[in-house]
């Protein structure tokens, strides 16, 4: 397999701009690795690159799914590998960009071979989670699957729901499937040195200021109208699009629960908290990735160019 460029980083760190510059220089195809930008319903609040920003550079898996769908890491992995293979077939360089660290890990470290979960099981578990809350559902998981319950925090609603879905649908613990992990689609390329893997870093205060400013820009770009359209669809409240940064807070404002300024402040705080979690996760999980200074774009680009030159026979052949 030919190689690829992987660029990770927290929200508002400048990943998309950096990727587009690289794509112009190397005949690249940019592939989305952000769990919210994959939904067509979230153009503004996911900070998805607009068509005019994309120019003539191919962008894949941006706005690819309807908000009613659930995009698991396994599903994204298969979609992303399909786009990577298409790029290679055309002699182009895949550049994967995003802040969802779990997506990158599935490509490199593999996936647990869990069978598809029936819709009725998924809906039932998610509905119960909304009604009962994570503490009660963690207790339910403890009764059905004590191994996974011991691994998960009682407040981790997403992972608790996933573990419950698996044990209810298959009768087996998610822990059992995790022991049978299937290698990720880029594992071989990674082992052969055919990947450039980089993480954008920047000071926390600077990142927080960028998050706050960008949310105000989103408000000017139509964030409220985007949330209005989501509310009008009557989607299940536990779907990813309904829990996206900014959506719950602005929905409360639109339904008259909170004042507009308070909703904005709440959304900004949520975004800062998320960015902090991203930075921590990327720092601890991607220790072998090259760190790039997001405040020095020219230096970051030069570092990436040097890495590409070192691996060019392996990456672009």
Describe the protein in words.
This protein is of the alpha/beta class and about 325 residues long. It is about 55% helix and about 10% strand. The chain is built from 15 helices and six strands. A six-stranded parallel beta sheet has the order 3-2-4-1-5-6, with helices on both faces. Helix 2 (about 50-55) links the parallel strand 2 and strand 3 (about 60). Helix 12 (about 225-230) crosses helix 13 (about 245-255). The termini are close together. The relative contact order is 0.17.
> Separation of termini?
9 Å
Topology, number of strands: 6
**Radius of gyration in whole Å, from Cα?**
20 Å
Determine the fraction of residues in helical runs and give it as a percent range: 55-70%
Quick one: biggest sheet?
A: 6 strands, parallel
Broad structural category: alpha/beta
**Total DSSP helices:** 15
**Order of strands in the sheet with most strands:** 3-2-4-1-5-6
Compute the average pLDDT. Answer: 93
Shape: globular
Q: Order of helices and strands, N to C? A: EHEHEHEHHHHHHHEHHHHEH
Instruction: Report the oligomer.
Output: single chain
Which segments are poorly predicted (pLDDT under 50) over 5 or more consecutive residues?
A: none
- Report the sheet-strand fraction: 5-15%
């Amino acid at each position: 397999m030919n190689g690829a460029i992987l660029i990770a980083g927290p929200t508002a760190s400048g990943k998309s701009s950096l990727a587009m510059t690289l794509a112009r220089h190397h005949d690249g195809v940019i592939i989305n690795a952000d769990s919210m930008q994959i939904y067509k319903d979230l153009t503004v609040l996911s900070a998805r690159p607009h068509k005019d920003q994309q120019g003539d550079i191919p962008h894949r898996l941006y706005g690819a799914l309807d908000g009613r769908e659930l995009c698991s890491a396994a599903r994204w992995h298969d979609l992303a590998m399909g786009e990577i293979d298409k790029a290679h077939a055309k002699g182009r360089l895949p550049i994967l960009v995003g802040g969802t660290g779990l997506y990158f890990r599935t490509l490199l470290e593999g996936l647990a071979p869990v069978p598809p979960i029936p819709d009725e099981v998924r809906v039932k578990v998610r509905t119960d989670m909304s009604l009962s809350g994570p503490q009660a559902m963690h207790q339910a998981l403890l009764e059905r699957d004590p191994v996974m319950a011991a691994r998960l925090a009682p407040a981790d609603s997403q992972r608790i729901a996933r573990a419950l879905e698996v044990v209810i649908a298959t009768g087996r613990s998610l822990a059992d499937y995790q022991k049978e992990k299937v290698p990720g689609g880029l594992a071989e390329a990674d082992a052969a040195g055919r990947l450039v893997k980089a993480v954008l870093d920047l000071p926390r205060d600077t990142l927080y200021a960028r998050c706050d400013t960008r949310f105000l820009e989103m408000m000017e770009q139509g964030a409220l109208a985007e949330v209005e359209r989501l509310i009008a669809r009557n989607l299940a409240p536990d779907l990813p699009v309904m829990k996206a940064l900014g959506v719950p807070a602005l929905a409360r404002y639109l339904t008259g629960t909170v004042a507009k300024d308070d909703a904005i402040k709440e959304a900004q705080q949520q975004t800062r908290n998320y960015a902090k979690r991203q930075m921590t996760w990327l720092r601890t999980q991607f220790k072998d990735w090259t760190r790039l200074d997001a405040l020095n774009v020219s230096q970051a680009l030069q570092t990436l160019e040097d890495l590409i030159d070192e691996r060019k026979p392996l990456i672009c052949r």
